[in-house]
């Protein structure tokens, strides 16, 4: 085993963890374990229920402005279990190129204000995972560091904040404040279906469609290329995007469910030669797609 990877503070390990968390970050629909209060309906008539998850353990950390933050790591059997891996198997995935082999289903709830034991106000996030995975991260330092890294990244992306990575696990508290009531769809269906049924991402709401434009080159006659410009002002980095360019279709999602784009193209394209580039200054994703010859 590579000793540089067993030291999770090393640059090599942090680089690999950072690469994986961008692929593995959980979705943000709400799941939990508890007695439902009553059957309700989301917009569009989707049935749902409300409940409160069970506590697990609590983590203290700070924002980049030294503001105190807590993460209540909760548990629920309504969250799909993560694939059961050993530490060595996780290390192999971290070192490999196919980072989609391991995803952690989780729910990151909305922040709520609480008072810590010193009587000072603080921000608390409830994060829900399956009980089996909770046991895994409690017993394995590697899985715990991996999980807290991707969870911190998910909170940063969803709530536009910056968190320091020097967290402290509280020994005598399972949660700070009161665990918040969650909302769950009674029939949850992923927007994108993975081959592995146990690792499906779940989505509660369809994200808004971003502004986009598509032009052809040359402008007259049958095109050689289609060029799409997709405006993503709320996206910080291309690594948070999931892009699928089909023969006549563009499907784009963001890991934090900020945007969703699913459109069909007027011409069939050469998929393997299509290219994408995200400008972090203008927040525009540009797709250059060669068009299949006119026959």
Low-confidence stretches: 1-6, 18-39, 41-46, 187-204
Percent of residues in beta strands? 25-35%
Total strand segments: 16
The general outline is: elongated
- Give me the number of helical elements: 5
Element order: H for helix, E for strand: HHEEEEHEEEHHEEEEEEEEE
- Number of domain units: 2
Describe this structure in words.
The chain is an alpha+beta fold and 295 residues long. The chain folds into two domains: 39-185, no CATH class; 212-290, Sandwich (Immunoglobulin-like), CATH 2.60.40. The protein is 19% helix and 29% strand. It is built from five helices and 16 strands. It has helices at residues 3-6, 11-24, 87-95, 131-139, 141-159; strands at residues 39-41, 47-51, 54-62, 68-75, 107-108, 112-115, 121-129, 168-169, 182-185, 212-217, 225-231, 241-245, 249-254, 260-264, 275-279, 284-290. Strands 3, 4, 5, 6, 7 and 8 form a six-stranded mixed β-sheet that branches. Strands 10-11-16-15 form a four-stranded antiparallel β-sheet, with no helix packed on it. Strands 1-2-9 form a three-stranded antiparallel β-sheet, with no helix packed on it. Helix 2 crosses helix 5 (141-159) and helix 4 crosses helix 5. InterPro entries: PIH1/Kintoun_subfamily, PIH1_N, PIH1D1/2/3_CS-like. Residues 220-292 form the PIH1D1/2/3 CS-like domain. Belongs to the PIH1 family. This is PIH1 domain-containing protein 1.
What are the defining features of this structure?
single chain, 295 residues, alpha+beta, Immunoglobulin-like, 2 domains, 6-stranded mixed β-sheet, 4-stranded antiparallel β-sheet, 16 strands, 19% helix, elongated, disordered N terminus, PIH1_N, PIH1 domain-containing protein 1, PIH1/Kintoun_subfamily, PIH1D1/2/3_CS-like
């Amino acid at each position: 085993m590579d000793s540089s990877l067993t030291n999770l503070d090393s640059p090599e390990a942090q680089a690999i963890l950072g690469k994986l968390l961008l692929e593995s970050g959980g979705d943000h629909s709400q799941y939990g374990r508890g007695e439902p209060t009553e059957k309700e309906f989301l917009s569009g008539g989707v049935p749902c229920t409300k409940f409160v998850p069970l506590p697990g353990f609590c983590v203290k950390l700070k924002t980049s402005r030294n503001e105190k933050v807590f993460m209540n790591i909760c548990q629920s059997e309504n969250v799909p279990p993560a694939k059961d891996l050993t530490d060595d198997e996780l290390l192999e995935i971290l070192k490999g190129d196919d980072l989609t082999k391991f995803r952690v289903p989780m729910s990151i709830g909305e922040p709520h204000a609480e008072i810590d034991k010193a009587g000072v106000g603080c921000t608390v996030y409830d994060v829900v995972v399956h009980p089996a995975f909770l046991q895994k991260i409690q017993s394995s330092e590697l899985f715990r560091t991996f999980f807290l890294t991707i969870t911190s990244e998910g909170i940063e992306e969803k709530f536009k904040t910056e968190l320091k990575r020097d967290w402290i696990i509280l020994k005598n508290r399972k949660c700070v404040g009161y665990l918040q009531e969650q909302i769950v769809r009674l029939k949850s269906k992923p927007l994108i279906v993975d081959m592995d049924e146990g690792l499906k991402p779940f989505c509660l709401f369809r994200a808004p469609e971003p502004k986009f434009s598509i032009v052809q080159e040359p402008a007259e006659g049958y095109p050689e290329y289609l060029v799409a410009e997709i405006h993503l002002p709320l996206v910080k980095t291309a690594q948070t995007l999931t892009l699928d360019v089909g023969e006549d279709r563009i499907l784009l999602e963001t890991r934090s469910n900020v945007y969703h784009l699913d459109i069909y193209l007027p011409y069939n394209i050469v998929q393997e030669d299509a290219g994408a580039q995200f400008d972090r200054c203008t927040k525009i994703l540009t797709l250059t797609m060669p068009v299949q010859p006119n026959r």
